[in-house]
Every structure is written in C-alpha cells, then in structure tokens.
Automatic annotation (TrEMBL):
Record bears the keyword Transmembrane: yes
Organism: marine sediment metagenome
Gene3D superfamilies xrefs: MFS general substrate transporter like domains
Transmembrane regions listed in the UniProt entry: 12-38, 50-83
The protein's name in its UniProt record: Major facilitator superfamily (MFS) profile domain-containing protein
InterPro entries: MFS_trans_sf
Keywords, alphabetical: Membrane, Transmembrane, Transmembrane helix
Length: 107
C-alpha cells in the first residue's frame, strides 16, 4: 500500500501534494502506534490477539479505501495504517522469542 497509495490517489484526481500528504499521514499514524501496540501485547500476554486485531484493522481500512471518496479517504488511510508497523513489530518480537531462534537468527 505504501508505494501504491500516492499513485492511486493521483489517479482518482487528487493533487500530488494531497496524495503525498496522505502517505505522510499514513506513516505518522503507523509510527505512533507501533511501540504502544507491542507494549499492549506484553500487558495482555497474547501477541496473537494483537496480531489478529491489527490484521482486521488494516483490512478494514484498505477495504474502505476502495469504496469511499473525499475526506473519508483520509480516514480509511489512517485506519489502514494505524496497525501496520505495530503488526510488524509484534511479529518480529514473536520470532525473536521463539525457542531456538533468538536474537542471533532473527536478524
């Protein structure tokens, strides 16, 4: 979605500045939620629950993006992005904590 979003928005008539701004908002939202999402998964003790919720949130935002217009595009972009980096952070944490993998093999 990251590389395609500005092109898609320009294709449906958005100005270059607005399309690129939507991508910047997407990245900002994603960045602000990543660490709190991992901390929440620690607090709840269930990383899989957080991953499932993140997948549903991201899928909802992407799905909305295909059917909404105008200002609702901004909302759908934020919804799609809000859990994206958090999902990856929780996934990497799960991989690192997997017995036999650890930090040496996780990257």
């Amino acid at each position: 979605m990251i590389g395609y979003l500005p092109l898609y928005l320009r294709g449906i008539g958005w100005t270059a500045a607005s399309a690129d701004g939507a991508l910047a908002a997407s990245n900002s939202a994603s960045m602000m939620v990543a660490i709190p999402m991992v901390l929440l998964s620690d607090k709840l003790g269930s990383r899989k629950t957080i991953l499932l919720a993140a997948m549903l949130i991201t899928a909802s935002g992407v799905g909305l993006l295909s059917v909404v217009g105008g200002a609702m595009v901004w909302v759908s972009v934020i919804i799609a992005s809000i859990a994206r980096d958090g999902f990856m952070a929780v996934t990497i944490t799960m991989i690192t904590e997997t017995e036999g993998v650890g930090a040496a093999y996780a990257g």
